[in-house]
Amino acid sequence: MLNEQRQSATATWTLLALALSAFAIGSTEFISVGVMPLIIKTFGISLSTAGLTVSIYAAGAPVLTSLTGRFERKTLLLAVMVTFIVGNLITATAPSFALLLFGRVIAALAHGLFMSVATVIAASVVPANRRASAIATMFTGLTVATVTGVPLGTFIGQHASWRMSFTVIAAIGFVALIASQILVPAKLPKPAMGQRGGFWRILKQKELLLGLIVTAIGYGRVSQFTES
């Protein structure tokens, strides 16, 4: 009974840490939409060019997910959050639009990897009959980010600066990193070793390529209509 209570408490705290991380990552996904006019003013670029801050993030998110099979889940989670923080700090301090895009790419890579590793961790800390519920709890962070995170970031950008918006997100990511280090158990089931060449096989999948193309075209068309 006592052991079951400890396992339940561990699972609860782990899911809270993952949900906080998901909130930070979800907030940064579309935050550039709200602060885009400020980014345009800062760098003197067109709306369609500024739209790359969204489209390049969406295209970069799934790229490295296939390369994670050989790493321990907690180690990978912490590395992902560090990458996420660095990406947002680069974005926040970028002296040029090119460097801003580089920071967005770094954050996007962390996004895709987080979705992969966090789902595995959430499912591994609970019994099999609770896995769906655990994953849903983790994704609550994304839901909350959609409702409150992005508007809050936009508010900060409009009343302080767009750089402050990304800095605050990086700070939330840092809190999530500390929470993950403390709350996520070190001993998690290790996944099977990734197969050699799996990354290139995934890139050859027509469904993935079609999805990336549709995403790029979709954001491009939105930028065209909003600019005109």
UniProtKB/TrEMBL annotation:
Residues 14-228 form the Major facilitator superfamily (MFS) profile domain. GO terms for molecular function: transmembrane transporter activity. It comes from Secundilactobacillus similis DSM 23365 = JCM 2765. This is Transport protein. Gene3D superfamilies: MFS general substrate transporter like domains (1.20.1250.20). It is found in: Cell membrane. Keywords: Cell membrane, Membrane, Transmembrane, Transmembrane helix, Transport. GO terms for cellular component: plasma membrane.
